[in-house]
Each structure stands twice: as C-alpha cells, then as structure tokens.
Amino acid sequence: MAKWGQGDPRWIVEEREDGTNVNNWHWTERDATSWSKGRLRELLVGITVENEAGRCEISELKQVEGEASCSSRKGKLIFFYEWNIKLGWKGIIRESGAKHKGLIEIPSLSEENEVDDTEVNVSKKKGDGDILKDLMKTAGTAKVREALGDYLKALKTEFTMGMILPTKAMAVQELTVKRKLSDSALQASSPVALGVRIPTVALHMTELFDTAIEQLYRIFTVKDLVQKFSKSSAVLEAEKGGKFQMFDGNISGEYTELLTNKKIVMKWRCRNWPEEHYAVVTLTFLPTLEQTELQLDCEGVPICEEENMKFCWQKQHFEEIKGLLQLTTLNG
Questions:
Q1: 83 pLDDT band (50/70/90 cuts)?
Q2: Cα end-to-end span (Å), the chain
Q3: Confidence (pLDDT) at 75
Q4: How is 281-316 classified by DSSP, letter by letter?
C-alpha cells in the first residue's frame, strides 16, 4: 500500500479544489450529433461545379441520419461518427438552357473508412442531361469528399476545444506563453483550468437591413422569430439576466443589457468553446434612410474561433434574417 502523498500521480488532485478530471485521466464524452448536422449542412449545401457543358449546384440537404460523439480518456480523444446523407442537386446545360435535378447519396460516412474511400452515389431524374450527371460524378464527387474532409477536421479540432484540460506541466507552458501576449489579447474574466487564460480577439461587423428598427430588434428578442431565421429550436428570456439558447443549444448565454430598439448586450458562447468561457456580444441598432444599420461588436472570442464567429454571424444570422425579412415582405 502506498504511503500518504506517494500514490499514483494520475489520481492526485493537484491545485484543483474541485478535483475535476485530473490530468485528463477520467472518461468524458460529448455528443456531436446536433453540431455535426449543422456543420454538414454548411459545408455541403451550395457546392457548385461547372465546365463548358453546364453548371451544377447542391441545393439542399434532404436527409442526414446518424450520430457523432467524441470521448476523452487518459488525455486521448476518441471519435465515433456514422452518417447516412442524401443531398439534392440541380443543374443547367449551357447550350440548350435545359434544367435537370438529381440526388447524391452517401450511405456510410464513418470512422471505419477514409474519406477518399467513402461511397458517393450520384443519380439523376429520368430524361436527358447525362452530361450534368457526369459532371457531378467527377468534379461534384471530388468537392463533396473535400467538404466531408473539412467536416472531420472541424470535428477533431473546433468541436473538441476544452475537452483536454491543461495538466500542471501544460499550465506552466501556457503561463509562459501568456506572459508574452499583450494584455489586450486576453480575456481577463474567463479563466480555464488551473487559471490559464486563453488568447482572444475582438470583432466588429456592420450590416444593413431593409426593415424598420423595431422589426429587426424583435427578430433578436422574440422566440418565434429567432426559431424562424435559425431554422431550429430556441429558448429565450429577453430580459436582463435572462438566459437564451439557439441553434439546438449550440449557442447559449445570458442577456446583460437590453435597451428597446437601441442595444442588446449578451454573454455569448458556442458549445465547443472552453468550459465557462463567454464572449461579450453587443448589438447596436441605428436607423438610416429606409433601412436599419446593425453594428455587431464581439469581445473575448477565442483566436482559433475568429473565422467561425464571422461565419456564424454573417451566414447563420445576417443572411438568414434577410431571407426571413424578404419572405415576410412577399407574404405581406
């Protein structure tokens, strides 16, 4: 029997009051299913290929069935994913202007096979247009496999942030690096394990919307409208101190300030960010001639998430909101 203080160091709680997952020894697991569905849609829908004969585009994600998860044990990450994906594509022949539609089926994307070996089947509805089908079977399939590879890279990097906690040795290295970073690049209020701070950046974006300032403000504070532009479930308590969840829980946070039709300030985080790390997001609504200008300021965004943050707001917020406004105008 080991003497007190001389046990296996993997089980010793060092400098952690809560003793959580010391040295990454314990088994932890994170469900990546919802996150994966959203990322697969982002990467696959909109893929285009063209040549002298015609042009094709993947227009919709018809089906995505399966699951994905990531587990951590002894400081190692273990991935499981298995997907059955069905995509819709459409194309046009340059010479005749004829339009055709078809399907792309990926019956089994899993960790058992390399992406280059993943089966990708292309089909087309009856009739002419085989020249477009051939384009999708060659260039289209190559781009689909490239997108699937990008999904797996994101799963193994972005999604797993925070799963491997710093050990005592890692903390010393991180603190040495931290001293070399400028104070402006650090989120002082968001420590991660062992007090190690992560480098962050600030973002500023501006977008114009063809709607009244009151309507744009409502889109960010009314549950039904949030669910419409996000195309997913949401939970909103639009009041100071109220909590919110969007995109099936992939984004969450808390309202810290609301000035009706003027400003919204939120603590804001993505599910795959380090635990308990939040950015501060400020939305400022400014009236212009027949439009509303929205100014977005984000402070405390992890450096490695900068591009994803820009994509999230530009594609999943701004562009989707504009689509909702356009649909509302047409229906009105």
A1: very high
A2: 78
A3: 63
A4: EEEEEEEETTEEEEEEEEEEEEGGGHHHHHHIIIII
